[in-house]
Amino acid sequence: MSHTSTSALITGGAGFIGSHLIDTLLKNGWRVTVLDNFSTGVLENITHLIGHPNFTLIKGDCLDRHDIRRAVENCELVFHLAANREIRAGAMNTKIDFEQNILATYNVLEEMRESRTTKTVLFTSTSTVYGDAQILPTPEYYGPLEPISLYGASKLACEALVSAYCHMFGMRAVIYRLANIVGSRGRHGIIWDFVHKLMENPLELEILGDGTQTKSYLTVNECVDALLFGLERASERVEIFNVSSEDQINVKEIAKIVVEKMSLEDVKFRFTGGVEGGRGWKGDIKTMFLDISRLKRLGWKPKHNSKESVMMATGQILDELRKNASC
Q1: Are the C-beta atoms of residues 35 and 118 closer than 8 Å to each other?
Q2: Residue 19: inside a domain, yes or no?
Q3: Using CB atoms within 10 A of its CB, is residue 310 exposed (0-12), middle (13-18) or buried (19+)?
Q4: Which domain holds residue 65?
Q5: Is 203 inside a domain boundary?
Q6: Cis before 137? omega within 30
Q7: Residues 238 and 320 in one domain
Q8: Residue 20 and residue 32: Cα distance in Å, rounded?
Q9: For 211-260, how does the pLDDT look when each residue is reduced to its tens digit (9 = 90+)?
Q10: Helices (H), 238-292
Q11: How many domains, in total, are found in the chain?
Q12: Which sign, positive or negative, has the C-alpha torsion 222, 44, 87, 152?
């Protein structure tokens, strides 16, 4: 699928990964349209792009086919990033993953099917589609896939829809199963949570679960690099790639890094104990470690390990908070 497109729609472009993707595409001369309802995306992430001749922002919703139709006009490629981002939300509102992930993806694919120009989709999926994988590191061909959260189930359903639409309607897709992505503009996740908890109480840090949850972390800039690298080299009608660092780090180690980066001392760690053997919450994957051999064979590999990624991301988040506080 060696890709020469220069015009793209990014759904959820005001979000964490999306805003970094826009920066890279515009630097490379692409024409970019963003569709975002700002339910989780933040205007501040893309304010610096307002007025750029190749940038168009449409405030709209992937649940509204008319909004997608307007946004996709004259675009060759869709980066479909819009989704519910919070796994825990599914336990309180079982509709959110169905609507924001499955239904939204269906709407995007339907508008692509009817479009004359837009026939390629890049879809950001998740490592949670694997559930509690018995093979670590986990390759893309692992199965059966048994998600343990509604979020993971919805992303797997989206993958199936993307694949079916491509095979039935002559479209192409690159699907990425992402590890934990961290860095600047990130406003949720473990680092963000730890930083804000310590800002409120620098003497004690509540840690969900038993602290032994072990996962892989990758910086957002390396994630964007992987997305575009795979897009350029994908050769099948539907390609699936894991995107991750090549090691793991546990929650307690991350807590220590955040405490050190905030120059705090004598912080007491209070573990909640979690659920089901120390998970942070229902649906939390206790151990995640992805096999990235498929992308590596094509020539991509991460520059940083999980610890380095967490350290860099913590510094970036703290710098942003200090900057905002001084404004």
Answers
A1: no
A2: yes
A3: buried
A4: 7-181+218-243
A5: yes
A6: yes
A7: no
A8: 12
A9: 999 999 999 999 999 999 999 999 999 999 999 999 999 999 999 999 99
A10: 251-261
A11: 2
A12: negative
Nearest to 158 by CA among 118, 101, 113: 101
Looking at this protein, which amino acid is placed at residue 30? W
Is the separation of the CB atoms in 176 and 124 below 8 Å?
Answer: yes
CATH of the domain at 270: 3.90.25.10
Which residues contact residue 259 at a Cβ distance below 8 angstroms, ignoring those fewer than 6 apart?
Answer: 198, 205, 267
Alpha-carbon distance of 290 to 128, in angstroms, equals 11
**Do residues 81 and 192 share a domain?**
no
CA atoms within 13 A on the CB side of 282: 7
pTM of the model: 0.96
Q: Are 193 and 84 found together in one domain?
A: no
Locate tokens 């929650």: which residue?
251
Mean pLDDT of the chain: 96
CA 40 to chain centre: 13
Q: Is residue 295, in this structure, part of any structural domain at all? A: no
Judge if 116 and 142 occupy the same domain: yes
Same domain, 140 and 266: no
Distance CA 177, CA 137 (A): 13
Q: Alpha-carbon distance 179 to 182, whole Å?
A: 10
- Give the relative orientation of helices 251-261 and 190-200 as an angle to the nearest 10 degrees: 50
